[in-house]
């Protein structure tokens, strides 16, 4: 297991002059920042400013000052600004993807860095285009009641390190569209990506309306309790979500919480193992498994268990993992040592319990970076920690089941419920199983596909509230009834 940074032999050319300019534009004064390292190589990526509680106070004060004029613009003008912001991100897409790849570790290629920047553009555009009209609730001659959604004021956006740009856009786009100002607190692991993204978006927004405070968890905690902040959008672990619920209580803040998951996929006995293997692979291993709504426990009927294991192994073997700047790679390193340790320890525990390793499970400890090989693990109990805990990395447990009731009971057996999936050519049979699963989204014959038009959120301790679609927009407003 890597215990520290080692130099990397790979020489990478950065042909983009604009990449250097973008990085320089977010750099702090010399000697005042914190160096961020590439998880694939250990090389320095750049310096992030160290923002403290005073920076947060200034950002919140500027947001409070800028918000009323922005709210007064109305939906049409705000949507127009979001569309311009989308164009700005599109113009800088390659520089942003390069930075994201170096800081987060995800490859440029595949459903990774370029895909993530593309999603930022798509979500900004889609959010600008969502329809939102006042609703007439009652109009019977005696009573006339209309439902409007008013701006909240200042929204705090606290995010994780796995999809740092995309999740920041998921938070800021609906907040801005609804007439709010936004203060973003990115993960300590990936501040540069978010600073650069917001720098680009801010080319099209008024001063002070959207700020990034590149601070630690204490800055996040203060944002969650700040009296001038009306709502917090949080994506991250369930533990931190609970802390945010507590620190937001005194000011009765609105919250949208997208927390941890441990998504189950159920393969029904009539599924074709070869036909589904590639989609199951990407459902589980997108972003090298570091995805909230990735498939993290695969339940396969005993009749086709061995065939599914074989087909998945064939697909997984063919997926190259390595430095993200090498266009051949579609899988990258874990983002940080702590996450590497989680994955390595869970696989070791599974091995010690007698589970069968189909692929991987043997990290090369001489390789630089936090690379953990693509790992498939068979023949273990549902209570095995690799099944029961969120691994958040490239290690998929495959569990055998005999009856649908057994599979549903096992899938529902945890206290989280973000996503789930059912795999079968019989759509009605799959929908019947889907209806029994305790998860915010159940996909059929795919896993983890999100869409800016379709609400997304968790069941149980995976959080509450939804993002995306008109439902997600409404969550960034205060409902107001005009009665009379
Ligand atoms: P994390 O909870 O450790 O950190 C997330 C953010 O919260 C960081 O910016 C951190 O600085 C901040 N923070 C930490 N303590 C805080 C506090 N007391 N008050 C306010 N802010 C605080 O999460 P992570 O490790 O960065 O991300 C991985 C987790 O996020 C996984 O569990 C994953 O499933 C989850 N996740 C969920 C979704 C979703 O949509 N449901 C999406 C991505 C990730």
Summarize, please.
This protein is of the alpha/beta class and 484 residues long. It has helices at 17-25, 53-91, 93-104, 113-129, 164-177, 191-201, 217-225, 238-248, 273-285, 305-317, 337-352, 385-388, 404-411, 427-434, 469-474; strands spanning 33-37, 44-49, 135-139, 144-151, 154-158, 181-185, 210-212, 231-235, 254-258, 263-267, 295-301, 356-359, 375-378, 395-401, 416-417, 419-423, 441-444, 459-460, 477-483. It folds into two domains: 17-259 and 462-483, 3-Layer(aba) Sandwich (Aldehyde Dehydrogenase, Chain A, domain 1); 263-451, 3-Layer(aba) Sandwich (Aldehyde Dehydrogenase, Chain A, domain 2), CATH 3.40.309.10.
Chart the SSEs and their pairings.
Layout: H1 17-25, E1 33-37, E2 44-49, H2 53-91, H3 93-104, H4 113-129, E3 135-139, E4 144-151, E5 154-158, H5 164-177, E6 181-185, H6 191-201, E7 210-212, H7 217-225, E8 231-235, H8 238-248, E9 254-258, E10 263-267, H9 273-285, E11 295-301, H10 305-317, H11 337-352, E12 356-359, E13 375-378, H12 385-388, E14 395-401, H13 404-411, E15 416-417, E16 419-423, H14 427-434, E17 441-444, E18 459-460, H15 469-474, E19 477-483
Parallel strand pairs: 5-6, 5-8, 6-7, 8-9, 10-11, 10-16, 11-14, 13-14, 16-17
Antiparallel strand pairs: 1-2, 3-4, 4-19, 12-13, 15-18
Helix pairs in contact: 1-3, 2-4, 3-4, 3-6, 4-5, 7-8, 9-10
Distance between the termini: 68 Å
Count of separate structural domains: 2
Q: Numbering strands along the chain, what is their spatial order in the largest sheet? A: 12-13-14-11-10-16-17
Ligand types: nicotinamide-adenine-dinucleotide
């Amino acid at each position: 297991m890597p215990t520290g940074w080692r130099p990397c032999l790979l020489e990478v050319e950065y042909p983009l002059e604009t990449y250097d300019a973008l990085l320089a534009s977010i750099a702090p004064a010399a000697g005042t920042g914190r160096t961020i390292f590439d998880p694939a190589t250990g090389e320095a990526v750049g310096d992030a400013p160290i923002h403290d509680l005073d920076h947060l106070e200034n950002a919140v004060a500027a947001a409070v000052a800028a918000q009323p004029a922005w709210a007064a613009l109305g939906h049409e003008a705000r949507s127009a600004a979001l569309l311009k912001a989308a164009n700005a991100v599109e113009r800088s897409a390659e520089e942003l993807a390069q930075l994201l790849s170096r800081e987060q570790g995800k490859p440029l290629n595949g459903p990774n860095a370029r895909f993530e920047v593309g999603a930022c553009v798509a979500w900004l555009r889609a959010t600008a285009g969502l329809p939102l009209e006042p609703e007439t609730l009652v109009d019977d001659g005696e009573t006339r009641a209309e439902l409007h959604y008013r701006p909240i004021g200042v929204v705090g956006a606290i995010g994780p390190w796995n999809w740092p740009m995309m999740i920041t856009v998921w938070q800021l786009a609906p907040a801005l569209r609804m007439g709010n100002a936004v203060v973003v607190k990115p993960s300590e692991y990936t501040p540069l990506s978010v600073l650069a993204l917001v720098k680009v978006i801010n080319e099209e927004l008024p001063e002070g309306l959207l700020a990034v405070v590149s601070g630690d968890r204490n800055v996040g905690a203060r944002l969650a309790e700040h009296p001038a902040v009306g709502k917090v959008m949080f994506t991250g672990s369930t533990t931190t979500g609970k802390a945010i619920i507590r620190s937001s209580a005194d000011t009765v803040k609105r919250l949208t919480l997208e927390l941890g998951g441990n998504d189950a996929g159920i393969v029904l006995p009539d599924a074709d193992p070869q036909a589904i293997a590639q989609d199951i692979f990407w459902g589980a291993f997108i972003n090298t498994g570091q995805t909230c709504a990735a498939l993290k426990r695969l339940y396969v009927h005993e009749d086709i268990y061995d065939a599914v294991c074989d087909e998945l192994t064939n697909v997984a073997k063919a997926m190259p993992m390595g430095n993200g700047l090498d266009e051949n790679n579609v899988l990258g390193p874990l983002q940080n040592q702590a996450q590497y340790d989680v994955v390595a320890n869970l696989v070791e525990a599974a091995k010690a319990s007698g589970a069968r390793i189909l692929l991987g499970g043997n990290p090369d400890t001489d390789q630089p970076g936090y690379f953990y090989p693509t790992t498939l693990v068979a023949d273990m109990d549902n209570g095995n920690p690799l099944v029961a805990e969120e691994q958040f990395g490239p290690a998929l447990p495959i569990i055998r089941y005999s009856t649908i009731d057994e599979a549903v009971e096992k899938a529902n057996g945890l206290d989280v419920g973000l996503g789930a999936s059912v795999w079968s050519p019989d759509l009605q049979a799959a929908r019947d199983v889907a209806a029994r699963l305790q998860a915010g989204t159940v996909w059929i014959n795919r896993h983890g596909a999100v869409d800016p038009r379709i609400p997304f959120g968790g069941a149980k301790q995976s959080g509450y509230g939804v993002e995306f679609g008109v439902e997600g927009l409404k969550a960034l407003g205060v409902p107001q009834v005009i009665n009379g």
